[in-house]
Amino acid sequence: MSVKRSSIHGQWSSRWAFILAATGSAVGLGNIWRFPYLTGENGGGAFVLVYLVCVVMVGIPIMMAEILLGRRGRQSPIHTMETLAAEEGLSPHWKLLGWMGVVAGFIILSYYSVIAGWTLAYIFRIGAGVFVDADAGLSKKIFTDLISDPEKLLAWHTTFLIMSVIVVSRGVKNGLEQAVKFLMPTLFILLLIMVGYAMSTDKFVEGMSYLFVPNFELLAEKNFFSDIFLPALGQAFFSLSIGMGAIMIYGSYLSQKSSITFNCFTIAIADTSVAILAGIAIFPIVFTYGLEPAGGPGLIFITLPIAFGQMPFGTFFGCLFFILLLFAAWTSAISLLEPAVTWLVENRNMTRVKAAALAGAIAWLLGLVTVLSFNHWAFSFNFAGSVKENGFFDIFDILTSNIMLPIGGLLVAIFAAWLMSRKSTVEELGLGDGAAYQAWHFAVKYIAPFGVIIIFLNAIGLFRLLGLGE
Ligand code: PFF
Asked: Given a cut of 50, is residue 397 above it in pLDDT?
C-alpha cells in the first residue's frame, strides 16, 4: 500500500524550493563560524579529512533516511515517528526520538542565537569603519569588549530571536523560500571574493597546507577517536542539520515526486563547499597576522575584520559579508524552531504565531545562560584535547552536536534500515531496488550506525578500558 498523506502545514512549491530551504538550514554559522574554529582547535588537515569521511559515510545516508521518514510521516517529527512506528508495528515510544530532537533544537537555538547576535553587532561595527587598518591586537580587543558585556549580548540575542520568530510565524514557505533564493548564491560569491583576498596574502600556502595536509606528529599526541573523530562527527551532524528532526520536517513538505537522493547530494555538496571555502578564506589570514588557529569561537570575528580593514572597499565587503552570514544563520535558526512549532500547532491547537512566540520565548530564556557563559559565568575545562573556556556555552554545544545529534541520527538509521520494511523504504526512496538503493541501504544499515557506535565507545574510552585499541 502506498502512503499518500499530505501535510497540514503546506508543501514546497517546487523541488528547488526544498533544496534551497534545506540548504538554508544546513548552511549557517556551522560552516563559517564553527567549522573553521573546530578545525583550528583540532589541528587542521586531519580534522578536515575525517570530517569529509563523516559527511560521506554517515551524514549523507542518514540525511536521506531522515528526509524519507519525514516525507512518509508528513507531520512534526514527534507525530511522524509515532505514526510510522504504528504503521510498521513498532513501539509508540519511537516518538521519543522526535522529542529528543525538539529538546536539542531548543538548546542549539539558545546559543546559536547569541552567536548570530555577534554577527548582527559586527555589521554595525564594520559599517562604522572601526576595523580600517586594524591590527590583530585591536581586532581582539573589539571582540573581547563585545562578549564581556552581557547587556550588549542580550540585546543582540533578543533581536535575532525576534527576527526568527517572525519568519517562522509566517510559515516556512512564505518569506523563507523567497529569501534563500538569492541570499545563498550571493553568500557563495562573497566567500569567493574572500578566498581571492586570502590568495593575495603571503601565508596562503601555509594556510592551505594547514587545512589540507594532515599533521601526523600532532595526531600522535591526540587520541584519534575522542579528539578528532568525535568532534568531526558532531560537526557533520550539526552542519548538515541532521539528527534532530529539522531536515525531517522539511522533508515532510516535499512532494512525492521529488528525488530524495539528488536533493541530498546537492545539499551536502553545497554545505561542504561553503565550509571548505570559509576555511580557505580564514587560515591564510590567521597565519599572516600571527593569530592563533586554536583561538576558539572568536576566530572568524577576530580574523576576518582584519582582512576587511586592509582590502579595498573593505567596509562595504565586510558589511555585506556579515549581513549574508546573518541571513545564513537566520535560515538555519528557522529550521531549529520548526519541529517544536509544528508540534505545538498539531497538539496544542495553537496558531502558528502563538506557537512560534512560545518556542522563541523558551529559546530566549535558555540563551541567557550562553550570554553569561562569556563573561560572569565563564569557566574552563578540557575536552577532546583542547581547553574550552566558555563553560555552559561549550557544554551546550558539546552535548547537542557531539552527543544528542549523533544519537538522533543513529536512531533514524536503525529505524529506517533495521525496522522499517524494505518495501516501505524502496517505495519512498524511489530508486527502485537496484544497486543505488542497496548502496544506500548498506550505508544506513551498517556503516552509519556502527560508525557512530564505534566513535562513541572509543570516545568514552571503553575500548581502552577493555584493553582493546589504543
Ligand atoms: N546546520 C546549521 C549550521 O551549520 O549553522 C545549524 C543547524 C540547523 C543545526 C538546524 C541543526 C539543525 F537542526
From this structure: yes
Q: Is the CB of 30 under 6 A from ligand 1?
A: yes
Closest CA to ligand 1's atom 10 = 241
Which class does domain 15-466 fall in? mainly alpha
Q: Kindly report, residue by residue over 256-276, the tens digit of the pLDDT.
A: 989 999 999 999 999 999 999
Q: Is 466 exposed, middle or buried (0-12, 13-18, 19+ CB in 10 A)?
A: exposed
Positive or negative: CA dihedral 396, 398, 399, 401: positive
CB-based contacts of 207: which residues, under 8 Å, 6+ apart?
198, 201, 280, 282, 283, 284, 285, 286, 287
Q: Are 69 and 232 in contact (CB under 8 A)?
A: no
- C-alpha torsion sign, points 56, 57, 62, 68: positive
| Straight-line distance from the first to the last Cα atom of the chain, in angstroms, rounded to the nearest whole number | 50
Is the shortest distance between the CB of 108 and ligand 1 below 6 Å?
yes
Cell numbers for 298: 572568536
Residues 6+ apart with CB under 8 A from 180: 20, 21, 23, 24, 331
Q: Give residue-wise pLDDT tens across range 102-139.
A: 999 999 999 999 999 999 999 999 999 999 999 999 99
Statement: residue 459 has pLDDT above 80: no
Query: Is residue 336 in contact with ligand 1, taking CB distance under 6 Å?
Result: yes
